[in-house]
């Protein structure tokens, strides 16, 4: 099977029916990822089947934790754009800030956004601390997402300062990350659900809520 057929079938396995337009956008993204990954290290996952499963399908699965609304959303440590950009394909009304300090990766993110025709996506070549100093008004986020960004205390501090009252953090974590999060003093945040990723063993979507 080709990319689109494989992605469609694997998305069905996690309860998602992808529209043809989304499949086409995802394939464009996939081709750009393969092309740019030859020049800069965007991802260590390089086999097409694994890119489909661990980048696209897992990201699409995370979209089930989010609603499509004109709210602010921050993705921390965006890297090659996962999970944020695939989620944006399914939640196009969300206004997305991609926070990524490596400028070459930001160039890639901007090219993906341009080629996919995504609106209200801003790729920021800044650290998390720098971003906090230049938050646009109102500076309150409905969602914060992060995958593989290892500084959980800093991330929870950011969430305490910037989540709106009903806001949520959605994290991709392994067992070790879950244990670290459980030990943190969350100070006004509350651990929510822990959903096993259907694509791998010992991987979870973990939710942290305001209040």
Any idea how many domains?
Answer: 1
Low-confidence stretches: none
Lateral arrangement of strands in the main beta sheet: 3-2-1-4-5-7-6
Task: Estimate the global geometry from the Cα principal axes.
Answer: globular
What keyword list fits this structure?
about 210 residues; alpha/beta; Rossmann fold; seven-stranded mixed sheet; 7 strands; about 25% strand; globular
Describe the fold and architecture.
The protein has 8 helices and 7 strands; from the N terminus they run αααβαβαβαβαβαββ. The protein is of the alpha/beta class and 211 residues long. The protein has one domain (3-210): Rossmann fold. It has a 7-stranded mixed sheet. The longest helix is centred in the N-terminal third of the chain and has 18 residues, at 20-37. The model has no long low-confidence stretch (mean pLDDT 94).
Give a brief rundown of this model.
The protein has 211 residues and is an alpha/beta fold. The protein is 43% helix and 23% strand.
Topology:
Elements: H1 3-13, H2 20-37, H3 48-62, E1 72-76, H4 84-90, E2 95-99, H5 103-116, E3 121-124, H6 128-132, E4 141-147, H7 152-162, E5 163-174, H8 175-183, E6 189-196, E7 203-210
Parallel strand pairs: 1-2, 1-4, 2-3, 4-5
Antiparallel strand pairs: 5-7, 6-7
Helix pairs in contact: 1-2, 1-3, 2-5, 3-4
């Amino acid at each position: 099977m080709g990319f689109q057929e494989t992605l469609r079938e694997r998305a069905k396995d996690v309860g998602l029916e992808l529209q043809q337009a989304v499949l086409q956008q995802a394939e464009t993204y996939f081709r750009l990822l393969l092309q740019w990954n030859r020049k800069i290290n965007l991802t260590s996952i390089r086999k097409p089947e694994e890119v489909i499963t661990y980048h696209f399908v897992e990201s699409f699965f995370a979209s089930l934790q989010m609603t499509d609304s004109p709210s602010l959303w921050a993705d921390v440590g965006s890297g090659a754009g996962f999970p944020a950009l695939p989620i944006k394909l399914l939640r196009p009304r969300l206004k997305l800030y991609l926070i990524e300090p490596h400028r070459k990766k930001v160039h890639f993110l901007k090219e993906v956004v341009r080629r996919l025709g995504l609106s209200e996506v801003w790729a920021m070549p800044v650290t998390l601390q720098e971003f906090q100093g230049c938050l646009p008004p109102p500076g309150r986020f409905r969602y914060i997402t992060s995958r593989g960004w290892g500084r959980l205390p800093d991330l929870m501090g950011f969430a305490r300062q910037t989540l709106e009252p009903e806001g949520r953090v959605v994290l991709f974590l392994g067992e070790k990350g879950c244990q670290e999060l459980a030990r943190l003093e969350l100070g006004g945040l509350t651990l929510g659900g822990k959903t096993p990723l259907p694509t791998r063993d010992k991987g979870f979507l973990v939710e942290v809520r305001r209040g």
